[in-house]
Design brief:
The chain has about 240 residues and is α+β, with helices and mostly antiparallel strands. It contains 10 helices and 7 strands.
């Protein structure tokens, strides 16, 4: 990608017409936005970019312009968890597989637990076990907590006051989701072969909700009580 005589980025012909229809953004702001996104190891929010760019910059306009510029390239500008970052184009992801060293492969129990938390949050350990039909070790939850994909939300207002779990922004970022509601629904899961096409008619996939606000049956976590959920979940089971 090179700059043309006007100082703006040259585009592929099929993108040029669409971008030309838009107002050309400030070239300096465009370069700064691109640099910030490229250098950041984490996705950046609109607010974070606004603080770093010159006052009065049309940050959203700059992002949308860059998104069109990179739409057909090897990396795309995408929005995940309400933040912006560069990601390898989906159709080229296979090229990266040989270069990625997988540090730890999640067990089937951990993947099932993660899926249940994502779809049923806020959910307790006892509720996870009820859905899975088998016990869930604290070690499985510890592994998921270490990934920073899940978090302890609060405590259920039931006997034993068990800890409730939910997903984090890092979960959305890792799986490339803008919102937890973007998780596949029943028909999508069937189409992907992740569910039997002959599941009972009464089978429902819940609509995920990762609202950070505690629900009516949750209390805040108390200081110093983050690691005693084993006894609490056992009492609440």
């Amino acid at each position: 990608m090179t700059a043309n005589e006007s100082g703006f980025l040259d585009l592929e012909p099929d993108v040029q017409q669409e971008v030309e229809a838009d107002t050309q953004p400030d070239h300096s702001g465009l370069r700064m936005t691109e640099a910030l996104l490229f250098a950041s190891s984490e996705p950046l929010s609109l607010e974070e970019l606004t603080l770093r760019l010159p006052e009065g910059s049309d940050v959203l306009g700059l992002l949308e312009y860059l998104q069109k510029v990179y739409a057909t390239r090897g990396v795309n500008l995408v929005r995940v968890a309400g933040k912006w970052c560069f990601r390898t184009a989906e159709d080229l992801a296979y090229l990266m597989h040989r270069n990625v060293e997988e540090q730890r492969k999640l067990s089937r129990a951990a993947l099932e637990t993660l899926a249940i938390i994502a779809y049923h949050q806020p959910v307790t350990r006892a509720e996870i076990e009820e859905i899975r039909g088998v016990s869930t070790s604290k070690g499985t939850l510890d592994v998921l907590l270490e990934t920073t994909w899940i978090r302890m939300r609060g405590r259920r207002r039931t006997p034993g006051r068990p800890v409730t779990y939910g997903t984090t922004d890092n979960f959305l970022i890792h799986f490339g989701l803008e919102n937890v509601k973007d998780l596949p629904g029943l028909e999508e899961l069937k189409g992907a072969g992740l569910l039997d096409s002959a599941v009972p008619a009464s089978f429902l996939v819940p609509t995920p909700n990762d609202d950070v606000a505690l629900t009516e049956d949750e209390d805040p976590l108390e200081d110093g009580s983050l690691f005693d959920d084993d006894a609490d979940d056992a009492a609440g089971a």
